[in-house]
Design brief:
It holds the Pfam family Lactamase_B_2. Keywords: Hydrolase. It comes from Chryseobacterium artocarpi. This is MBL fold metallo-hydrolase. GO terms for molecular function: hydrolase activity. By secondary structure, this protein is α/β, with parallel strands linked by helices. The protein has a single domain, classed as Ribonuclease Z/Hydroxyacylglutathione hydrolase-like (Metallo-beta-lactamase, Chain A, 4-Layer Sandwich), CATH 3.60.15.10. It contains seven helices and 14 strands. The protein has helices at about 55-60, 80, 90-95, 105-115, 175-180, 205-215, 235-240, and strands spanning about 1-5, 35-40, 45-50, 70, 100, 130-135, 140, 145-155, 155-165, 165-170, 190, 220-225, 245, 250-255. It has a seven-stranded mixed beta sheet. It is globular, with a radius of gyration of 18 Å.
Length: about 260
């Protein structure tokens, strides 16, 4: 299987509009971060998208991706769902509704934000989705076992997702001991890390991530959902402890 980072930035992306800091003015492509999303390709070449934010169209075109078989949604914040309307060309081409897997709470929010996609009589050109409400237990789809990981993002529950011995978690500020058991001794763990210093009420910062790396002991840990406050890629990546890496848009992992 493969995982490609379509975006590794926070809700504002990097560069931030109007910001002239060292990161936002960097010419290094690794410092250009679209909103966080990944594409998982199964062994049968089926495509599993995790989150569909405002940069979805650009991400698909840049990475020469042409299909989405299913989408897993972590939570309902706009930087993770507002790009769903841009799935229309894929839906028109396949002639099929795109299956979305998410919390019941998230499904309700998606219906509220895209009511035209769920109307009894849809106007021509509207997207169409097939909502699947999931719980915190493993499920099988596309011949792939997917294990949800429940984490806390400020005051709401968010799902991360585990495939084989890789787990992807974004928008987390707390992980319970029960859920940590699912994350121990992985080959690859992907965690959000919004900045180096200054505790955040809803996201991990670098000291939190280093502590989790030492506790969970993955072979490799990649940071995502990165803001311009973390620093420029080429400097910060070299200063991280061995085994921890900054992810960047377009990075592909085999697992």
């Amino acid at each position: 299987m493969k995982l490609k980072f379509l975006g590794t930035g926070t809700s504002q992306g990097v560069p931030v509009i109007g910001c002239t800091c060292e990161v936002c003015t960097s010419e290094n492509p690794k410092d250009k971060r679209l909103r966080s999303s990944v594409m998982v390709t199964t062994e049968e070449n089926r495509k599993i998208l995790i989150d569909c934010g405002p940069d979805f169209r650009q991400q698909m075109l840049t990475n020469h991706e042409h299909t989405v078989d299913i989408a897993l949604i972590t939570h309902e914040h706009n930087d993770h769902v507002i790009g769903l309307d841009d799935m229309r060309p894929l839906i028109f081409k396949s002639g099929k509704d795109v299956p979305l897997y998410c919390y019941s709470r998230v499904a309700h929010e998606i219906k509220n934000r895209f009511p035209y996609a769920f109307a009894d009589v849809r106007y021509p050109g509207a997207p169409a989705f097939e909502l699947h409400e999931i719980e915190n237990k493993p499920f099988h789809v596309l011949d792939t076992e997917i294990t949800p990981i429940e984490v806390i993002h400020f005051k709401i529950s968010v799902f991360g997702y585990k495939f084989k011995n890789l787990a992807y978690i974004t928008d987390a500020g707390f992980i319970s001991d029960t859920e940590k058991e699912k994350l121990k001794n992985l080959d690859v763990l992907i965690l959000n890390c919004i900045r180096k210093f200054d505790p955040h009420p809803a996201h991990f910062i670098l000291p939190d991530v280093i502590k989790l790396f030492e506790e969970l002991k993955p072979k490799k840990l990649f940071l995502t959902h990165i803001s311009h406050h973390l620093g420029v890629h080429d400097i910060e990546d070299k200063q991280l402890p061995s085994g921890i890496h900054l992810a960047y848009d377009g990075l592909e992992l085999n697992f």
